[in-house]
Amino acid sequence: MFERKSGARRSSLVFVASLCACAGSAPVVAQDAADEGKTAEPKPARVSRSKPLSPNATINLVNLLVKQGVLTEEQAKSLVEQAANEAYVQRQATKDATVKAGDAAKVAAAAATAASPPGVKHVTYVPEVVKRQLREDIKKEVMAQAESENWASPGKYPEWASRIRFYGDMRLRYRGIYYPSGNDQYDAVNFNAINTGSPYDVSKTNPYYYPTYDVTQNRDQFRFRGRLGMVADLHDGFSAGLRFAGGENNSPVSQNQTFGANGGNFSMYSLWIDRAFFKYQPLEEISLTGGRMDNPFWSPTDLVWYRDIGFDGFAAQGKYEIAEGITSFVAGGAFPVFNTDLNAGINLPAYNGGPPTKLPSHDKWLFAGQLGVSAKLNDDYAFKIAAAYYDFSKVQGELSSPCRVYSASDGCDTDLSRPSFAQRGNTYMPLRSIISDTSNSGGTTNQYQYFGLAQQFRPFVASGEIDFGHFDPVHVVLNGEYLVNTAFDGKIRPDILANNLTGAFQISANEWYPGNYVGGKYGYLASATVGHREIRRLWDWNVFAGYKYLGSDAMVDAFVDADFGLGGTNLKGYFIGGNLGVGKNVWLSLRWMSANSISGVPYAVDVLHVDLNGKF
After folding, report:
1. 3-state secondary structure (DSSP) of residue 327
2. 198 — phi, psi (to 5°)?
3. Which domains, ranges and CATH numbers included, belong to the chain?
4. How far apart, in whole angstroms, are the C-alpha atoms of residue 61 and residue 508?
5. Which of 42, 277, 296, 316 sits 20 to 30 Å CA-CA off 62?
6. Could you check whether the bond before residue 127 is cis, i.e. omega within 30 degrees of 0?
7. Is 83:58 a contact under the CB 8 Å cutoff?
8. Is the Cβ–Cβ distance between 611 and 588 less than 8 Å?
9. Cα-trace Rg, the chain
10. Is the pLDDT higher at 208 or at 345?
C-alpha cells in the first residue's frame, strides 16, 4: 500500500511538472491506473461552478494538489515560480517576434511597392517556418539577457553584487588589571594627556597637578570589539576595500569599547572608519595599494607593531618563486604619520610683539622596506625569515627658538614636533625654550610646556618563523623578532631629559636632570605555539608562551602592542595562553601577561584577557 501511494505521488509530480512546463498547451491523460496494469478510461470533462482561487489554471491545480497532500508547500512554490518565469520569457519572446515580424513585413511591402507599377496590389505573406524561427531566436536572446542580468531568476543577486565580499568579526572580552605593591603613582606622568591638551605649567609648586596614569588601583573591565568590512572587485585587477570598527576613541592601537564607559547609562558607542583603500593587482605576484590598509609588512609577533594597526599611505608588494617551494617577497612604502593643519599658527605677541603668524609644514613620514624568503621544504617543515628597515622622518622633538609664553593659549615655533598620539615608555624632552624675564618672575612662573620625543627612530627588524608540521594538524611553531633602533643616540643633552632616568623623578621649571639617562634601543621577542595553526572548528586548540623585552626607545611607543604592560615600550616580561574552538569560527581565548619596567621608576602590572571570538 505504501509503495502504491509513493508511485502515485511521483506520477502526480511528473504530471504537474509537465503541465507547468507546457503552461496548458495540450490535454494530459491521467496515469494513476497504470500501477494496476490497467488503462484509465477517459471521462467526460466537467466545468466547475466554484469560483477559482486564481485566474491561472496551473496555479489553481497546484493549490488543489497541495490541499490533497500530493505536493508540499515548498514543491508547489517552486513549480509556481518556474511557471511564472517561463511564461514571462515566452510572452516577451512572442511580443518581440510579433514586433520584428511586423517591421519585416512593412519593409517588404515598401520594397514591393517601389518595384511594382502603379495599380498593382500586394499581399505580404510570412511563412510559418520563418515566424517560428524568429520566435526561437528572440527567445534565446531574451533568455541570454535574463541570465546575464539575473532579472528572470527571483532571489538571485545582480551581477555587480556578486563581486562584493563582506566579512567581519566580533569579540567579547573580560580584562583584569592587577598592580603589585611598589608602583609610584607620582612618577607615572601621562605625557600624551599633556601633548593632546593644554600645555602644562611646570612652574607649579604642587607637583600633583600634572596628569598621571593609574598604576595602583586594580580594575575589572568588560569590553567588546566589532568590525564589518567589504572588498569589491572592480575588474581588470582593481579592487576597493572599506571597513568600520568600534572603539572608545581614534587610537591606532585599540578598537575596543568598554561597557559602561564614556558616560555609561547604556549610551551608544562610536563607529570609526578603520580601512579605506584601492588596490591594483595586475599579476598575482604584484600589488599596489593606496589608502588606509592592513600592515603591508610581515611581522610574526607584536614586538614592533600592534597586530591590527592600519597604515595610511602607499605600499607595493611583490613575490617571486625562486625554486619549487621557495618564494622570495618584498614590500615597501611611504606613509604620512602626521600632516600639518592648514591653519597651524602661533600667537606672535610671545615673540616681542607683532601679528599672529602661520607655521610652516612639519609633516612626519614613515618610509619602510622589507625583504624576505619563505620555504616549504616538505609537509613536515617550513620556515619564513625577513629583514625590515623603518625610517621615521621628523618624529623627534625640536627645541624651539627663544619665546615668551604668557598663558596656555600662547605657542612656540616647534610645538608641532610633539607627538599627536602616544602610549608610554619613550623618552621625552621639553620643547619650549621659554625666555626668563620680569613677565614670568625670572622663569619661576608661566612655564607652559609641551614635550617631544628625545630620540630619532630608524629601527632595523629581523623576523623569523619555523613551523614543524610532522604531527599535522597539530603544529609546533617558533616565532621570534629582534629590533634595534639604529638612530639611537646616548649623547642626548642631559639638561633637557624628562623621564627614563635613575633616581627620583622630577618635572619642574629649573631641574630636568635628577638622575642618569638609562633608556635603551634594543628589543626582542621569542614565543612557541603548540596546536592548530588556526582555530576554525569545534575543539581546535593551541597553547602558547613567550618572553618579551622592548627598550624605552627601540620603537615609537604609539604603534606597539596596547595590551602587554597596558601598552608602550620600556617593558619586559612573559605571557602565556591558549585558544579553544567551541564551534565553527567561534573560539575562546585566555591570555596572561606579566610586565615590568626596564629602566626609570619602578612599574609592574599583570593583565588577564578572557575572550569569546567569532568571525564571518
Report:
1. strand
2. -80, 150
3. 2-35+50-71 (no CATH), 77-156 (no CATH), 170-615 (2.40.160)
4. 93
5. 42
6. no
7. yes
8. yes
9. 38
10. 345
> Which long-range contacts (C-beta less than 8 Å, at least 24 apart) are formed by 287-291?
287/316, 287/317, 287/318, 288/314, 288/315, 288/316, 289/314, 289/315, 289/316, 289/317, 290/314, 290/315, 291/241
With contact defined as beta carbons under 8 Å apart, do 275 and 294 qualify? yes
Strand 459-471 versus strand 381-393 pairing type: antiparallel
In sequence order, what DSSP letters do the residues of 55-121 get, joined into one string?
S-HHHHHHHHHHHTTSS-HHHHHHHHHHHHHHHHHHHHHHHHHHHHHHHHHHHHHHHHHHHS-TT--
pLDDT number for residue 331: 98
What confidence score (pLDDT) does residue 500 get?
Answer: 80
Per the document, the length of the chain is: 616
Q: Residue 577 has which C-alpha cell?
A: 595562553
At 486, list the grid cell. Answer: 639604529
Is the whole model's pTM more than 0.85, yes or no?
no
- Please state, in angstroms and as integers, the Cα–Cα distance from residue 397 to each residue in 425, 451, 495, 517, 598, following that order: 15, 7, 15, 17, 23
Sign (positive or negative) of CA dihedral 111, 116, 122, 128: negative
148's enclosing H/E stretch is: helix 128-149
Query: Cα–Cα distance between 457 and 426 in angstroms, integer?
Result: 11
